[in-house]
Amino acid sequence: MKILITGAAGFIGQLLAKELLTNPDNELILVxxxxxxxxxxxxxxxxxxxxxxxxxxxxLEIITKDLDAVYVFxxxxxxxxxxxxxLGMTANIDATxxxxxxxRLSGRDSPIRVLYASSQAVYGMPTPDIVTEAVVPTxxxxxxxxxxxxxxxxxxxxxxxxxxxxAFRFPTISVRPGKPTAAASSFLSxxxxxxxxxxxxxxxxxxxxxxxxxxxxxxxxxxxLYALTMPxxxxxxxxxxxxxxxxxxxxxxxxxxxxxxxxxxxxxLISEKEVPELRDILYSWxxxxxxxxxxxxGFKPDQPFVDTVKDYYEMFVKK
Length: 319
What we know:
The chain has helices at about 10-20, 55-60, 80-85, 85-105, 140-160, 185-195, 215-230, 250-260, 265, 275-285, 290-295, 305-315; strands at about 1-5, 25-30, 50, 70, 110-120, 165-170, 170-175, 200-205, 210-215, 240-245, 245-250, 270. It has 12 helices and 12 strands. It folds into 2 domains: about 1-175 and about 215-245, Rossmann fold, CATH 3.40.50.720; about 185-210 and about 245-290 and about 300-315, UDP-galactose 4-epimerase, domain 1, CATH 3.90.25.10. By secondary structure, the protein is an alpha/beta fold. Helix 1 links the parallel strand 1 (about 1-5) and strand 2 (about 25-30). It is globular and about 60 Å long. Helix 1 (about 10-20) packs across helix 7 and helix 4 (about 85-105) runs parallel beside helix 5.
């Protein structure tokens, strides 16, 4: 398959690309606003081409008629989109619409599979104790509103037969390697990643019972690979949004998992200090979801969080 990944320099783009490059029959086009690398350790690195481009202005130059699928991962994350409204609108909406228009105008004989990375940030309070796709999204951030707009575009472009799209509302992905991101939820990786590296981490919320809906990188990639070939009729053409599986975990439960893998010394590197400008965003995201729809479509459940911390330790910390 010939597959385009946008936002390919990011963690999820790199992780998925590396997995796709285990198959010699896959050809990847990796695109980002910065030059995206071919993932280190890829089995077939020569099967990937990298492109530095701004999709908002150059999507028509990138899309080719022979593409088989597109993963749409580009964008500015939650706190970044809130801090810079114009940048969020350009990166999250304008670039996505330009991409969809380029696909519509590409002259294909059949709709192309498009897998769009949305977010649980489309939800805002009030929400029921357990959220399903039937809950009306009421985003309390510009990022959530921008994701909701793009979900609507995916639905309509699919209904019209221009693409064969699905929009997946990702849980927060933890644990991510690398540096902190502009996401309000970045600490949910940092509070594991930094202490396991011997570095301090400040949790921007003074509430250890704060719960959040997260997913391991391992489970996310498995579900994204499944989505590549799942039946198009798994959902009506105008209802293409799916809440991907995750688990609800409190800050205390995450600290307990950190201690189980890294010991008390790792936990002692954590401190807590409330950041008022993040509070409203963090508390607007519901902590519990019913993923029955995703399971009925064939997606797999996530693993216990302590197993995710163990995965991270063995992949990125253990010598």
